[in-house]
Amino acid sequence: MIDSFVIPLLKILIVLNTTLVAVTYMVLLERKVIAWAQSRLGPMRVGPYGILQPVADAVKLMIKEDITPVRADKWVFTAAPIISMVPALIVYAVIPFGPEVSLFGRKVSLYITDINVGLLYIVSVASVGVYGIILAGYASNSKYPLLASLRASAQLISYEVAVTLTLVSVILMAGTLSMVGIVRAQEAGHMWFAFVQPAAFVIFFIGGLAETNRAPFDLPEAEQELTGGFHTEYSGMRFALFFLAEYANMIVVSSVATTLFLGGWLRPFPNVAALSFLDLIPGWMWFLVKSFAFLYIFIWVRATLPRYRYDQLMRLGWKVLIPAAIANLVVTGIVRVLLLR
Amino acid sequence: MFDTDELVINMGPQHPSTHGVLRVILRLDGEKVVDCDVVIGYLHRGIEKLSENRNWTQIILLTDRMDYVAAATSNVGYCETVEKLLQLEVPRRARYVRTILMELQRIASHCLWVGTHAMDIGAMTVFLYAFRERELILDLFEEFCGARLTYNSMRVGGLPLDIPPGWDKKVLEFCDIMDSKIDEYETLLTHNRIWLERTKGIGVISGAEAIGLGLCGPALRGSGVARDVRKDEPYAAYDEMEFDIPVGTEGDTYDRYLVRMEEFRQSLRIVRQAAKGIPEGPIVGKVPRLIKPLAGETYHAIESPKGELGYFIVSDGKSTNPYRFRVRPPSFANLQGLRRLVRGHLVADVVALIGSIDIVLGEVDR
Fold this sequence. Notes:
Number of strands of chain A: 2
Helix content of chain A: 55-70%
Low-confidence stretches of chain B: none
Structural class of chain B: mainly alpha
CATH superfamily of chain B: Cytochrome-c3 Hydrogenase, chain B
Shape of chain A: globular
Number of helices of chain B: 14
Helix content of chain B: 40-55%
Number of strands of chain B: 6
Number of helices of chain A: 12
Radius of gyration of chain A: 21 Å
Mean pLDDT of chain B: 87
CATH class of chain B: Mainly Alpha
Distance between the termini of chain B: 50 Å
Oligomer: heterodimer
Structural class of chain A: mainly alpha
Mean pLDDT of chain A: 82
Largest sheet of chain B: 3 strands, antiparallel
Shape of chain B: globular
Radius of gyration of chain B: 21 Å
Largest sheet of chain A: 2 strands, antiparallel
Strand content of chain A: under 5%
């Protein structure tokens, strides 16, 4: 009873709440890091060094007037932020934050569930999130959001393919779709997949930037061109949901990248015995450190690079990333077959 | 079965990238711009008409409000026109200080341009870096005349007040700081692959066509036409300065960007020469107590950061205000080129091109 019901429920509760808090603080982190990059201080007023800024933001967004434009498609307009947010959260169900640990004499695994098609589940759920953006642009019945939603759909198709192909190479290496299995495979192979699959790693990262609508691929938002893009007509908490979804997706992409390419909860160089003192740091800490390194790069990229143009992004996706991902997949396949023989 | 409609989209007057209150009506085929219509007039304050009812000194203050990011340049342009009308000799010291102020103003204006242009294309860090340095220039201006944006920093015949002691040293110190900062902007942009892809081949215009459209300033020099009023018809102390005029080759957004980046350096070169060589002497020429030029008309142009800024003034010789006051603002002339430039490009390029012709709406509408 406890094992099958109470503990999973507790885990869901903890993961969901931690994620939401992490997401709000991600916003603060981004503002701070970008401020430092730009020789500013960032938020400093709310609490010491602005650490209560997310609270103030949340309160502000909740008490703001919630406007639905008269000509908007009301049902879709309401559903769009939810469609965006929910997939971003339920992906966390299969992300392994750490190995099994014993807690109060009970073996507890630091992931909600480990289904044998974990990676497939992530890919399919994550792509549902983009429908939120497409529907938001369509339902707003306004021209700028419409352009944004067209851009979002084009971007989705171009990048989903490349990213999924890199995942296939990883699956070939690991021989399993289970997220925990992939980490175990890296442990058994004494090697993070980032070192055996560098091309896939880079393509996944670029595709990840595009999938989460982050700079330099933030075309559906493109404040300077489309005045906020798909969320132009949104206000208050509905706007906040899009915002949170974007950051939640960033964390998802970082976590998936950590699991697939950086050995998840494993310490660096899991095969080198001389570094075994690193085992003193628990696995979930390693996971957090690696994910945060990713998130930091996300922010860093945003502070540094200009934005791609719509057609250039498509060109990059179809003419560079997808062929590269296919080539990588073919090479991986051939090498695997030769080695297994 | 599939018929396509053109989408008419209204960009501005409230839009983050139209640099003020510019309104552009775009006709789009997908994201491709088929045609565009530029609507101006949202910032019209009737400065030209107002000037006909102000005396000659009061007008200086109105010229501040035209190109408000380069107010000192507008001041000097106007004062020199009136001096030409009065056939007044300006002391050498005043001409040197004017040159320093105008070149500092050019750097400040280009700082604002590089920041907003980069921001329009999505590189937001350059914006804050450029504003950091612009702040230093504003400090210098504040020390000279007390104001930071609309300076009212000139008088007909010379300067309102002498430079504060040690000001020229501070100007030279600023030049040393600025040198490395320009390299910093260039590190972020010039060889950045995304920047190159976004600006190369965008809004190509040949030299002949640019002249035909009346483009001026960096927008014209980007197309390879070495027209610069500072060299062609020297004013202030430019005839005593050594500097080069950078020109582009392709006439695209990237070349216009490179031209302005090089102008940063040339301006610093001029500022250094002028600040080291400020002569002693009076700061105001022999100006009559009541300025009342003889009947006649005159046109005088200077090179503002945006291009050729001309003043046409008619005096009837009877009243203490101009009979007719007309400005030829560079932004207005350059804005005419926008329609030609954006045709066939994408929405994202429209904002890049608006940034690339560097307009200030205060000057377009007056």
